[in-house]
Structure formats: C-alpha cells, structure tokens
Amino acid sequence: MFLDEMIAAQKRGEARGVASVCSAHPTVLNVAIKQALRALESHGALLIEATCNQVNQFGGYTGMKPADFVRYVHGIAKENKLPFEYILLGGDHLGPSVWQDEPAESAMQKSAELVRDYVGAGFTKIHFDSSMRLADDPAGRLDAEVSARRAAQLAKIAEQTAITSGGGAPRYVIGTEVPVPGGARERGDSVGITTVENARQTIEVTREAFRREGLESAWERVIAVVVEPGVEFGDDFVWAYQPSATRELSRFIEWQPMVYEAHSTDYQRRQALKSLVRDHFAILKVGPGLTFAFREAVFALAMMEDELFPANMRSHLIRVLYDVMVRHPRYWQKYYLGTPDVQAFKRKFSFSDRARYYWPDPHVQNALDILLRNLNDKPLPFSLLSQYAPMEMEKIRAGMIENKADAIISDHVSRVLDDYVFACGGN
Q1: How many CB atoms lie within 10 A of CB 180?
Q2: Distance CA 405, CA 409 (A)
Q3: Which of 324, 308, 301, 320 is nearest to 371 (CA)?
Q4: Which end of the chain is more exposed for a tag (fewer CB within 10 A), N or C?
Q5: Cα(125)–Cα(55) distance, integer angstroms
Q6: Are 177 and 183 in contact (CB under 8 A)?
Q7: CA 75 to CA 66: how far, in whole Å?
C-alpha cells in the first residue's frame, strides 16, 4: 500500500509525504485527479478525504453518504481515465463530533454506524476522533483514556466491517490535537505546538486501549498521529511553520513506527510544506486553500465578464454568491466576527473560505454556468488577462494552457496542489 511505502521511506530518512485533499468540490477533485494521472509513475497515489460533517450516514452537508461519495469520486476518476486503484479514500474525524450534544450511548452508537458505513464503502484510511465531551460526560476536558477507549471501540467496528465487507485492512490515524475548526477567529488566537509528552501519552494510552479490545494487529496498522506543529490560518493571516519550534517533537517520532499528520497546512509556502515533510509531518491536509483558489479564479473571471458583457447578459456571480450567503448564514455566522462591513468583506475574501459551502446552491451554480458559457465562447483579451490573471496569461502565451475560463480556473487550483507535490517528494 502506498501509505506503508511512504512511512517506510520516512523511516529510511527520506523526505517523502502525501497530500490529503480534503474537498468534495468537483473542480478541485477534477484538478487533483488530472494531476495524479500525470504523476502516476513518480508519485504513486492520490489521497482524497471526507470529514464526518461533510459525509455521513445522514448525508452530511454535501448530501452524500459514504457510499455516495465513493461513487462520486469514482465517476470523476472514470471521466479522467484514472484507474480507481490509484485513489486512496480517507475518513477524517470519524467519531461523535456531529452528535456531541447527545449522551455518550447514542452518540457512540451513531459513531459506530458512521465508521461501519465508511469502511464498508471502501475507505481505507481512517482517522478516529473521539476527543470531544459528550452531553453526559463530566465537565471540563475529556479524559485522555476515555477518548482512547472510544477510539478503540470504533477501531473494533472498523476491523469487523473490513472482514465482513471483504475490503482491505484499513490504515488508522489517531490523535486529535488540531487547530480550531474553520480557522482561527482572531490574530491573537494561539496555536500551542504539541509537546513530546502529549504525543507520547496519546500513543501510549491509545495503544493500551487497542490492546484491551484485542486489536494488537490493528495497532500495527496505525500509520500516523495527529499533532499540532504550529501552522494555522485565519481570515487574513497565516502562521508559517517554524522548524526550530518542533525540533524535539520531530526527533521523538523518529523512534516510533508511525509519522505525524498535520492539519490546516493551507496557505503555507512550498518550502515550509517541504520542511514539514522533512520533519516527519508526512501527511499534509489541505482543503480551504484549494476552494479559496477556485473562488479567486472565478472572481477574476467575473470581473473580466463585467468588462466584456452588458449587464443583462452577465452572470453577476459575485453578487449572487454574496446574496445567498446573507440569506443562509448557517455556515459562516459563528466564524466571521466583527461589524457588518467586516463580515461582508470576510464572506468574499476570508482565507477560511466559508464560501465553499455555497457553491452547490442552485442560484450560485446557475450564475457560474452563465459565467463559463459567456467566457468560454471565445478567447479572453490578453489585456484583461494581464490585469486579472497574469500568471495564467503567461501560460496561455507559452501554449501551456488554453485561453478558456475552465482552463484558467483549473490552472489556478493546480498551482496550489503543485506546491504539495513538490513538498511530498515530487518534482
């Protein structure tokens, strides 16, 4: 399995890693799959992950159950002629997060069904996250041993499901020291780097919990532990990776049969990503950074459309997206703080990219369709490309991409993924 090979390379001292594409956006997945197709020989596999909020037995916010998501990705792969065996599917934060307002008994029953559905559908990389306090748990931070015990109970479900479904033996990720979901709210929010003591405790208590459940063979397939290396982003800032701050943490994992998984690596410079992989943060999660790039390209095209078409023919995409977000504030309201004007700016331009939840909306999708029909009809003027998409213009002039809106969007997203390919050992 590719993940096993990557870890073996890490233990030989090679700076090998894998990008975890955490998105259900069709353009993002199309670009990732096309890139994987070009890099089969040098890079091996593409890792695509879904979260418990995004995809679950009740549909999640995408409306997809785990089997639906598998079919969805399979369809995109088939369209691009990428054999599905080159795609690894992961389930992220599988546990009671969605049901943390319920008592432990019902929340864990639903968590078990969640894991059963993911593994039964063919997801082979499973991250257990049972760190949250449930409705009838004692007040305060959840005890580490309780969290580990619940993770082991879910691992037992995963093992049983893998056997009955005839799927491959899953690889597991443990640990839950991650940044604030959705990005930091304020610049002053701190991200404490995981201590060696906490990393050691997570591994030891979870290993013991697995042993108590009779899961010694499953423990041998624990490939990574999630820790916090000090990378994070907020609405308009990014905290860059500082290798000197994680030196002891990096050394610690060299003596363990696993690597680290780093969340919220979006917007890190490519050299910082490469340093993370070198320091054994070998699984790099990226999601909002990809849909932010999509949004950035689409907005640039909408501005070009305003210059080329009369008002009655334009998509008015930026306004349509804005209006839908105002009418349905569920996905941004608790994340975008500040005055109404500040919130309005964040709805458009925040690095947290809560706009990603609104692209499937029928009104937004219709506006996007109009935009692409308008701009794919004939080549865009170089003068406008120079103003709004200068890097893509240079590629068009060099014959590297077509002068079409679709190609400009795809290239803009691809540039983000290129940094991850570079960091993970590609060219």
Answers
A1: 14
A2: 6
A3: 301
A4: C
A5: 15
A6: no
A7: 14
Q: Which amino acid is at 342?
A: V
Distance, CA of 268 to CA of 329 (rounded, Å):
28
Backbone angles phi, psi at 99, to 5 degrees: -120, 30
Q: Which two tokens stand for residue 82?
A: 């990428």
Residue 372 tokens read as 């692409």
363-379 pLDDT tens trace: 999 999 999 999 999 99
Angle at 132 between CA 152 and CA 202, to 5 degrees: 50
Q: Taking the domains of the chain in order of start, what are their residue ranges?
A: 2-286, 291-417
CB 232 within 8 A of CB 239: yes
Contact, 92 vs 52, CB < 8 A? yes
Tokens linked to 167: 């799927």
| DSSP 8-class letter at 96 | G
Nearest to 155 by CA among 108, 98, 88, 200: 108
The string of pLDDT tens digits covering residues 204-242 is 999 999 999 999 999 999 999 999 999 999 999 999 999
Q: Which residue has the tokens 């795809």?
A: 410
Q: What is the dihedral of CA 364, 370, 376, 382, to 10 degrees?
A: -80
Please give the C-alpha separations between residue 365 and each of 187, 324, 406, in angstroms, as whole numbers: 33, 11, 14
Q: In this structure, what DSSP letter does residue 86 have?
A: G
Is 0.85 topped by the overall pTM?
Answer: yes
User: CA–CA separation, 99 vs 86, rounded Å?
Assistant: 33
Share of the chain above pLDDT 90, in %: 91
2-286 and 291-417 agree in CATH topology: no
Banded pLDDT at 331 (limits 50, 70, 90): very high
Residue where the block lists tokens 């977000």 = 325
H or E segment to which residue 322 belongs: helix 317-327
CATH 3.30.70.20 fits 2-286, yes or no: no
β strands within 104-158, DSSP E: 125-128
Q: Which fold has domain 291-417?
A: GI Alpha 1, domain 2-like (1.10.400)
Token digits of residue 353:
């990219």
